[in-house]
Amino acid sequence: MESNPDDAGATRIARVTAADGATSELLLVGDPAPRCWLYWLPAMGVPAKHYLPFAQALAARGIAVALHEWRGIGSSDRRADRRQDWGYRALLAEDLPAGLAAARAAWPGAPGLAGGHSLGGQLACVHAGLHPAEVAGLVLVASGAPYWRMFRLGWLIGAAYGVAPLLAGLFGHFPGRRIGFGGNEARAVIRDWARSGRSGRYAAAGMGGLEEGMAAFAGPVLALRLRDDWLGPPASLEWLLGKLRSAQITRQVITPHDLGGPADHFGWMKTPQPVAARIADWLDGASAPPRP
Fold it and tell me: Could you give the CA distance from residue 126 to residue 92 in angstroms, rounded to a whole number?
C-alpha cells in the first residue's frame, strides 16, 4: 500500500490491490489515532470522492473514515465491458478484504465499523455476516433491500429486475450512465443485484447463500432512513434489518428539518453534517461499540 497526502486536509490516498490484481484508491480521512473508524461503501455507481464531505464531518467528531471505491467506478483500474465482468463475489471476497486491510493498517488498535449508502449498506451487512469478528458495528444510511414487494408500484420495479440483466447482456455492461441509474455496471453485478430484487434474498454466484451469517451477526446497528426516500422506503429497510435477527438495532429518521433541505436518497450528501452528528451521538450511546 502506498499512501500520499491529499489536498483535503487530513485525507490520505492509499492505492489498494485486490487478490486478482485489480487496483483502486482508498480515501482515508481522519486523525491517525481516532476513537474508531468506519469503512464506508458507496451507493451503486457513486465514486468514493463524493462522500468526502460526509467523511470530513465524521472526522471532525473523532471518527475516521475509509471511503471504498467500487470496482469499475472512479479510481478503479477496471471498466465493465464484454471482456471484463465480475459479480458480488469479486466485490465481497477480493476487493473488500484488500481495502479493509489497508484501513486496519492505517488505524491499528481502533475498533472498525462497516457501513454504507444504499447498495453499500446492503453489502456491508453481508460482509458483517461473513466476517463478524472484523466488524464492531454497522451504520446504514438511506439503505434497504431491493425486494420488489417492499416498494410502491413494486410490479414495475420487479419488471425492471427482469430488464436490467437483458440490457447488460446487450451492451456488454449495464449502461447506468446512459439511463440515469447507477454507473456502468458489470453484467454479473447486475445479475446478482436483480436476483436479490426478485427473490428478496442475498446470494452471489460462486458464494451461494449469504443470509445465514447475516442472521447470526450480533453487533450494534444504526439504521438512518431519509424521510422522503422513495428508493429506500420503510418496508425496504425493515426487510433488510429483518435479516439481522441477532443484531442490536437503532432506527432513526432524518427529516428535511434536520437537513435544511431534501431528505431523500441523495440529498443528504449535500449537507451531511446532521447525519454525521447522529452517528457520533449513537457511538456515544450504550448500544454502540466501546472506544479503544
Answer: 8
C-alpha to C-alpha distance for 188 and 190, rounded to whole angstroms = 5
Q: How many CB atoms lie within 10 A of CB 260?
A: 11
Backbone angles phi, psi at 261, to 5 degrees: 180, -170
What domains are there in the chain, each with its CATH number? Answer: 2-152+213-283 (3.40.50.1820)
Helices (H), the chain: 52-59, 88-90, 96-106, 119-130, 154-171, 176-179, 187-199, 211-216, 234-241, 256-259, 273-283
Nearest to 22 by CA among 88, 71, 87: 71
* CA 160-180-143 angle, 5° bins: 70
Q: What is the pLDDT of residues 122-146, one digit of tens each?
A: 999 999 999 999 999 999 999 999 9
Q: How far is CA 40 from CA 18, 206, 289, in A?
A: 17, 24, 17
| Strands 112-117 vs 36-41: parallel, antiparallel or unpaired | parallel
How far is Cα 110 from Cα 112, in angstroms, rounded to an integer? 6
Amino acid symbol at 152: R
Identify the band that residue 9 occupies on the pLDDT scale cut at 50, 70 and 90.
Answer: very low
For the chain, how many helices (H) and strands (E)? 11, 13
**Cα radius of gyration (the chain):** 18
Average pLDDT over every residue of 235-252? 98
Q: Residue 96: beta bridge partners?
A: none
pLDDT averaged over every residue in the chain: 93
Distances (CA, A) of 3 to 29, 30, 95: 12, 14, 18
- Cα dihedral 132, 18, 46, 259, rounded to 10, equals 40
